[in-house]
Predict the 3D structure of the following.
Amino acid sequence: MSVSENLKTLKVNFPEQVLLIAVSKFKPNEDILEAYETGQRDFGENYVQELVLKSDTLPVDIKWHFIGHLQSNKVKYIAPFVHLIHAVDSFKLLKEINRQALMHNRVIECLLQIHIADEETKSGMTPEDFYTIISDHNLRGLKNVRVIGVMGMSTFTDDKEKIRKEFKTLRAVFESGKEKNSQLTEISMGMSGDWKIAVEEGATMVRIGSTIFGSRS
Ligand SMILES: *Cc1c(COP(=O)(O)O)cnc(C)c1O
């Protein structure tokens, strides 16, 4: 199946109010353009160098989501154009994003990544760290970032109930955070294998790669 056919199939049962982010890491520009031609505008990338190359050579109205682990020393490369940074996992990183956004006279929207899986490998902060960061007095100094929600990744497992439980946890952390900070509106959760569960549990955006572009080698 082609990229455009995959997208069409995916969209048959896709809820209108959820933002679909097409994850295009390791995929060539021609595949991204094929999705673009169908009207897709939100794309997700994991690696800074790859994202910069693609943003330089693809249509300027693409909204680029940075969904990978971001190192502080690389923020400067994506600060001029990135639409949303999903996986902010420390206050230190948030401060650097603020610094770079200021230099480009922008406000960069960010999500804070919460650790919900039971694997050591999946990064993210604890709910307690999240509540501290989003408290007024910590964010007040950062005028060039806007924290608009949370992001999480479930454990890699076939156990659907386990995945659902983890998404429920993320949703609950989001709701508690919202009581402290009314700017929070977004929950980024769900990938090719688990996006339907994520949507049932309240995702406002999902990040889907292989279902659209095929498996990655
Ligand atoms: C690669 C990736 C995705 C997409 O994964 P698929 O299983 O191919 O849909 C989503 N989120 C993150 C953070 C990723 O790294």
User: Anything to note?
Assistant: The longest helix spans residues 160-180. The mean pLDDT is 96. Residues 23, 25, 46, 67-68, 153, 191-193, 207-211 surround pyridoxal-5'-phosphate (CB under 6 Å).
